Amino acid sequence: MEPLPDYLDHWIPLTSLEQMARTHYDVLIVGTGAGGGAVLWRLCEHWVKSGKRIGVIEAGDLMLPTHAQNIATMDAERYVKYWSNPKFWKKVGESQPVCPVPDLIDASFPLAFQQFLALGGRTMIWNAVSPRMHPTEIMKWPVPLKEMDYYYRIAEKVMSVTRNYSQGSLLTQKLLERLQTQGFPEAEDMPVAVDLGQTKYGELHSNVFFSSMLFLARALNRKPFDLTVRARAVQVLTEKGRAAGVRVMSPDKKTYDILAETVVLSASTLETPRILLNSGIKGEAVGHYLTNHSRVVGNAIISRLEFPEVLGTLNILLPQTEERPYQIQMYGPGQYYWYHYKTEPLQQEWRVDMQASGKVESRYENYVSLDPQKRDEYGMQELQVCFSYNDRDLEVIRQMAEGVKQASYVMNATLLTNGGSEVCLRLPGEEIHEMGTCRMGNDSRNAAVNRYGEVFGISGLFVADNSVIPASGASNPTLTTVALAIRTADYIQQQRDER
Predict the structure, then answer these.
(1) What's the pTM value of the predicted model, to 2 decimals?
(2) Could you give the CA distance from residue 270 to residue 194 in angstroms, rounded to a whole number?
(3) Are residues 191 and 243 in the same domain?
(4) How far apart are CA 464 and CA 492, in angstroms?
(5) Which one of 203, 301, 337, 372 is most buried, counting C-beta atoms within 10 A?
(6) Within a domain: residue 99?
(7) Kind of pairing between the strands at 255-265 and 294-303
(8) Is 220 helix (H, G, I), strand (E, B) or coil?
(9) Cβ of 450: how many Cβ atoms within 10 Å?
(10) Which helix (H) or strand (E) is 481 found in, with range?
């Protein structure tokens, strides 16, 4: 074996596939997004003083060492241009935007379901909105509410989730008052994963917006692990009903078998079932129950004259309730995240952006499957997507559209039409909140993994990403995925340490 160099070529240590193929791991994690990052961090916390070996495989390449909004050279325009680069995205299947409400559809985006390939996954570019799932949704899950609360608190702490991002903003304060007193009493400061800690004792808090890169950094500072990028997991290796490792392909199409006692798939709602199906692991629910959030958006203008001189930023959430199966996120004025990088001129009107996310029912008929006619560059069968909204989903969409209009009216904001409707419905998949294809449950007939994320019928094979969420609710899924992934990591640690 050649000696390792005493310098780094990159801002994070990388290990070659050749070296990883010569190592037998205790745990091998596929994917570095919210779920994979959380599992890695938690296991490194548990095993800091142990000799356990952890390996991590990432299909994407190095992108950025921190969330894009923490980069000083990024503004709103450059940020969008950077993350929309086709090298990070892969279209998945033949998307089917079947929505019989054409007056709401904005078909300007031809692509819907897509994968984002980069170290850190989509947490590198997300909006960091981090609400909990509504209790009425969790009550249907195989995890007690009290236990979910425990893991939510851990996730919120490690992700620095706060409602103080716009603290002191008179814009947020005044619009909250209007909403709360005129039909939306649940309106609240939006919880976001941002580190607002002040510099103290020489400790800097420079990574304001959270990304999975913080999970990787904290893990690395606790315990070494092996990480490789641009490595495509194509098959889970099994032996006598147990996970035995992962078959991986390099960019030059060489195949490597990386062996491990435990395997965690965190490759995404779309890629994880693809790996399972390509491995011959075909539980009744694998790939089925694909769900997302229906997304209705509206842009409004609000008069600057109604507010004091120091405006501040807008950061409001209308959460899901028992009566309202959707939530509305409100941002502004304009590209408010970017004000610390540029000076905005005084304006008479400001834009307010509203994004409504609706609950979508989990149905067996919505699924991903392997396409026997199409293969990718690695020889894997491509995915096909079968997805549509049913009548109840469409009713939620109509309620959302009215909710956006009513909230805008209450705030004294005028919705823009741009020559069309006041609100528009985004195509399925554009909100990038897909879930459910490896849903958690107690019965293998309608679930792919058990209450701890372990795949039915294969010991030592776990899933920790959005795909395990059994029902969409209306809340952004990332916080829930992190909480469940930490819980899965705790279970893996207990099982491994008992041996």
Answers:
(1) 0.95
(2) 28
(3) no
(4) 12
(5) 337
(6) no
(7) unpaired
(8) helix
(9) 18
(10) helix 478-497
Could you tell me if residue 281 is inside a domain? Answer: yes
Q: Which helix or strand (DSSP H or E) is residue 172 part of?
A: helix 170-181
Asked if residue 438 lies in contact with residue 416, where contact means CB atoms within 8 angstroms, the answer is no
Same domain, 269 and 149: yes
Tens digits of pLDDT across the chain (499 residues): 456 667 888 999 999 999 999 999 999 999 999 999 999 999 999 999 999 999 999 999 999 999 999 998 888 888 889 989 999 988 886 544 444 444 554 443 333 788 999 999 999 999 999 999 999 999 999 999 999 999 999 999 999 999 999 998 899 999 999 999 999 999 999 999 999 988 778 777 788 999 999 999 999 999 999 999 999 999 999 999 999 999 999 999 999 999 999 999 999 999 999 999 999 998 999 999 999 999 999 999 998 888 876 778 899 999 999 999 999 999 988 776 566 566 666 678 888 999 999 999 999 999 999 999 999 999 999 999 988 889 999 999 999 999 999 999 999 999 998 767 889 888 888 889 999 999 999 999 999 999 999 999 999 999 999 999 999 999 999 999 999 999 999 999 999 887 7
Residue found by looking up tokens 């020889």 in the block: 379
Tokens of 321: 């309730």
Total domain count for the chain?
2
Residues 304 and 259 in one domain: no
Domain shared by 484 and 421, yes or no: no
Q: Is the domain of 57 the same as that of 119?
A: yes
- Which structural domain, as residue segments, surrounds residue 311? 163-208+294-358+390-427
CATH number of residue 394's parent domain: 3.30.410
Q: Are residues 167 and 154 in the same domain?
A: no
- Residue 305 lies inside a defined structural domain of this protein: yes
Q: Which of 56, 36, 123 is nearest to 83 (CA)?
A: 123
CB-CB contact of 38 with 44 (8 Å): no
The domain spanning residue 26 has which CATH number? Answer: 3.50.50.60
Integer Cα distance of 155 and 55 in angstroms = 22
Residues 8 and 140 in one domain: yes
How far is the CA of 470 from the CAs of 138, 435, 451, 477, in angstroms? 9, 8, 10, 11
